[in-house]
Amino acid sequence: MDPDDDLPPEDAAAALRLIEDQRSATVRRLDPDARLVYWPWGVAWLVGFGLFFLRFSPDDRELLRLPSWLPLTVLYALLLVAAIVQTTAGARAYGQVTGASARRGHWYLWAWGLGSVSVYAGLGRVSEHLPHDLAALLWSATAVGLTGALHMAGGAIWLDRDLFRLGIWISVLNVVGVIAGPGWHALVVSVAGGGGILVAGAIARRRQRNRR
After folding, report:
1. pLDDT digits (tens, 9 = 90+) for 77-129
2. Model-level pTM?
C-alpha cells in the first residue's frame, strides 16, 4: 500500500471531489432503492385487486372462473411479500440512524400497525351484517383510504412531496371507486392504484439517481 494514499489532496478540486464521493456513498447507504419501497406494493395491488375484479365483477358476474378464496389469499400473500421487502430494504438503510429521524420512523410504523388493527376490528363487527358485495367494498375502501391518509401523513412528516402526492392520488381514486360501486372499486384500485404506485416508484428512483 502506497503511504501517499493517506495524504490529504493537494488541491481544492481534488478535495471537493473527495467530499462529493463520500457524500454520494453516504446517500447510497442511507437511501434505499425506491423500487424496493414502491414496486412490491404496486404489484400487490395490481395483481391482487385485479383478481378481485375478475372473480367478483359488477352485477355478480364472474369474468374469470376462480375459487372464491383465491383473490384474497393472493392479495394477502403479495402484501406480506411487499412488507418484507420494504422492511428489509429500510432496515439496511436506516439500521444505524438514530435521533429524531429514527423516532419518526418508529412512531410512523406504530401508526400503521395500531391504526390498521383498530379500523379492521370495527369493520369485522359491521361487515357481517352486510351483503357480500357491500362488505367487500367496505373492507377494500377502508383499507385503501387508510393507506392514502397515512401516505399523506408520511409525506408531511418527512416533507416528501412524492409520498404526499401519492397519498392524494390514492385517496381520490378511492372515492371514485366507491362511487362507481362494488366490483368497479377493485378495478380502479388495481389499475390506477397499483399502476400509480409503480409510476411513483419509477419517478422516485429517477430522482435518487439525479441526487447521486
Report:
1. 999 999 999 888 877 766 666 677 778 888 888 999 999 999 989 998 898 88
2. 0.82
Of how many residues is the chain composed? 212
User: Residue by residue, what is the 3-state secondary structure of the chain?
Assistant: CCHHHHCCCCCHHHHHHHHHHHHHHHHHHHCCCHHHHHHHHHHHHHHHHHHHHHHCEHHHECCCCCCCCHHHHHHHHHHHHHHHHHHHHHHHHHCCCCCHHHHHHHHHHHHHHHHHHHHHHHHHHHHCCCCHHHHHHHHHHHHHHHHHHHHHHHHHHHCCHHHHHHHHHHHHHHHHHHHHCCCHHHHHHHHHHHHHHHHHHHHHHHHHHHHC
Grid cell 500500500 in the structure block, residue: 1
Q: Which residue has the cell 379500523?
A: 119
Tell me the domain boundaries of the chain: 32-92+100-211
